Structure formats: structure tokens, C-alpha cells
Amino acid sequence: xxxxxxxxxxxxxxxxxxxxxxxxxxxxxxxxxxxxxxxxxxxxxxxxxxxxxxxxxxxxxxxxxxxxxxxxxxxxxxxxxxxxxxxxxxxxxxxxxxxxxxxxxxxxxxxxxxxxxxxxxxxxxxxxxxxxxxxxxxxxxxxxxxxxxxxxxxxxxxxxxxxxxxxxxxxxxxxxxxxxxxxxxxxxxxxxxxxxxxxxxxxxxxxxxxxxxxxxxxxxxxxxxxxxxxxxxxxxxxxxxxxxxxxxxxxxxxxxxxxxxxxxxxxxxxxxxxxxxxxxxxxxxxxxxxxxxxxxxxxxxxxxxxxxxxxxxxxxxxxxxxxxxxxxxxxxxxxxxxxxxxxxxxxxxxxxxxxxxxxxxxxxxxxxxxxxxxxxxxxxxxxxxxxxxxxxxxxxxxxxxxxxxxxxxxxxxxxxxxxxxxxxxxxxxxxxxxxxxxxxxxxxxxxxxxxxxxxxxxxxxxxxxxxxxxxxxxxxxxxxxxxxxxxxxxxxxxxxxxxxxxxxxxxxxxxxxxxxxxxxxxxxxxxxxxxxxxxxxxxxxxxxxx
Length: 546
Known about the structure:
By secondary structure, this protein is of the alpha/beta class. It has helices at 9-20, 25-32, 36-45, 54-67, 74-85, 90-101, 107-119, 159-162, 204-215, 236-243, 259-271, 278-300, 315-387, 393-418, 421-425, 428-443, 459-480, 518-530; strands spanning 168-175, 182-188, 194-199, 224-227, 246-249, 447-452, 485-492, 495-502, 535-538, 541-545. Mean pLDDT is 79; it is low at 138-144, 512-516 and 542-546.
């Protein structure tokens, strides 16, 4: 039986980010490793007032899980058991409950109930009409031996008969010594191009997997597939769905309707006699190619260590030599890239550290020296106003005091933006809250702030997150045309997330905006510098995951 796993909070954040970056539901499902229907249900069941948000979606799912109740009640199962003991079949029970009590329970579910009862020592299975060892069922089981939902060759487009286009294939299987293993043979009608693949047994599932594996690399040249009524093609609907083709069946005992493939199989028999074990021959033909495929997949994942042995002095051997030479060049280039990346990170770390030290020094001087001088000037001008209450200089002194006061406020603001002391003294949460308070007062845009940190983070991490939040708010004010924004900073174990989101156009760090968006590049550099596990994503939001 299949196992079912609920979506985790991390997967919901992945769905959120991939959806924000414009990926389709199918692409999201492939990246996360789940079925696309799971993504569709998640986006449909857990949206909020402002769209799909991962934290809110996870909370809704947890609340719904706690309220969950069994779909089939104990009373219904009691009725099922009673009817079973009266020798009703599961199909009859399923139909009667649906018709009379509006309860939808499949006959397969009832079979599973009976089997579970048998495993625990029950005797319900003795009331089943068929006492043979039961196989796994897929839909309704047809005991008459006919393949379900077959589409006759009479429905096949007439253009296939004319052989004027590529993409119309014929399929069959032929047996080796002792009837196993089995070869799957696929022939294209116009070009006579043939694909062969070995399966250990002539079962529908094995033939389905091999057929899809053989045709998937040329799926853009696959339109139709025609086979006989062999039971090994019982999974024709899954094949058609996987390859996006039309599957047709020839008439029984009409091999000429698949003449191209039958003739090809006859030629193959000349080199693969039935008495010859196909295992060794298949191994000789496919082993070098499979070795190349395996090594290529490793290289695609960034592993440049695999080398392919030269099996023979033929074209495949030449390909193996060329592949090894290419891999060595890629390995050298990758090593050089890694060395340069280390140097770049070291230099960037020094630059940012020096920059923060210089910011701290300038902010301290502005606060301690410049601010004190301006304060003294303001006091002196106030004394001058008092002493010259009726002289002409009083008005001028008042104006100068106002200018000095405004300048003092600007110096304080500049000092805070360079290096807020609250960040060093009280930590990230207090610094962000103060930044947001001043930002809202200046731009009149409401911000929803949520910071979930039980303890302080390392200094370099707090500084990086603060700068990223600061730059993100600056971009929202200048470019996003936003009416509201939100900030989320939270920690889960060893992972920290910082999300700044607005409700309008947002921004993209992957787009070349020129020099006026160098701040965004600085945000990404700070994120990537912290740890090898850091990532920075942006569209309508800036998201930092450490």
C-alpha cells in the first residue's frame, strides 16, 4: 500500500517561493517531489485574505488536522460486516450503500478491510466468493481477460497508414530462452527506426516502464502507438498519459496490421534466436551506453570524478574517450572556479567587515562630536535670544537656532542609519522595530512586523539581516508603489528566515537594473556571505533563508 505524508512547513515555504517566482503547479510539484494534485489542493484549501502565505497555510492545515474525523464511521463498517456475513460481494455492498444511504465507499476499500480482518485472525474472508489468492486490484477487475478501454485500430487516423509523417510507432514483445527475460520492441513506421529494451518478466507494469523509458527521449517524435491485445499492454492508458500519445490496438490475429514491427522482429530473430539467452546479448549492447548515461548524470549534478572505460574500438569507444577528456576539462575549470569563489568570499567578507567598522566609527563621531557641537550652538543661540529680547539680532538668532535644531535631527537620523546603537545593545528585534517605527512615520505606509526569536543571533547574522531589511524597505518606498508591507523574521532550529513583502510591484534581484539597484546586489552578497546554506530570493518579496 502507498504511504501518505502531510506537507511540512518547509515544503509550504517552497511552494510559496516557487509560486511567487512564476513557476507552474506541475513545476512546483517536480521540484518538491510531490504530485501536482497535492500542490493544487494546498493552494485551494489554505489561502488567506492576501493570497497563499506559508505560515498561515500551515496553521490552517494543523487546525484542520486536529478537527479531522474518520470519513467512514464505525456504524457504516458494522453494516458492511453484517452484509459480508450474509455473503454479499464487496461490489454489491458498495453499490447498495451509495444508492440507499448515500455513503461512498469503494469495493477496494472493503476488500482491504477484509484482508486486515484476516491478518488479525478474523473470518470475513471466508464469505468472499473467490477464495483464490488475491492480487492487487486497479479499478474493477475484469475476469473475462479483455483489456479495458481499448481503442481499436479502426479509430486510428488514416494518415498513419500512408507513412507520410514521423511519430507513428508499433509495439510488441518477444521472448528469450525459458520465456524470460523479455525484449520490448518499438518500431517507427516511416523511418523503421527501432528501439529495444529488456524487461525481466512480461508483466504490464514492467512493459509500461520500459516503453516509457525508451520513448521519453524522443517524445517529441511520438504521436501514436499500436500494439496487439497482449496482456503485457494492459497499462496502455498510463503509457498514453505519460507520453501524451494515442494508443491503438490491432484486431486479434491480424499481425499484418502491425507489419512493420512484425517484420522487424523477424529480422531481429535472425541475430537473437529464441534459443539464445538474451541477457548476455543485451548486456553487451547496453552496458557501454548505460555507463555513459550514468557518468553523464553524475556530471550534470556537479560530480566530475566518474570516468568511462573504453569497451571496444568503435564509435561508442570514441565517445567514451571524448567524454573523459571533456570531464577532465570540466574538473579543472570547476577547481579554478572554486578557488576564485573562496578568494571572492574572503575579499567580500573583509570589505563588508571594514564597511561596518567604518559605519560604526562615523556614527559614533557624529553622535559624540558633531551632535555635541550642534547642541552647544543651539544653547548659545537660545541664550542670545534671551539677552537680545528687544534687539534686531533676536529674529536672526531664532532662525539660526531652528536651522541648527533641524541639522541636529538630521545628524541623529544619519547616525542611526549608519549604525544604530540599539542593534549592538538590544539586538535585532529591537533594532528592526525602531527602524519600522521611524520608516512608518516618514512614509505613512503601514507595516506588519512579526519577529520570532527566543534568543539573540550571532552579530554578523543580525547585522546582515538588519541591512537586508533596511535596503528592502528603502526599495519599497522608492520603487514598489506599495500601500502596505510586512516583515517576518523567525528561527526554526538551525534555519533563519527573513521575509520582507509588499502588496504591489515588488522587485527582482535577478534583473539587471543598472547602478541604481546596486543595493539589491549588496543584499544578495550579504546573504551569500553568511553561510554556504544561505539563499536569497526576490519577486514581490525579499526572502532570506539561512
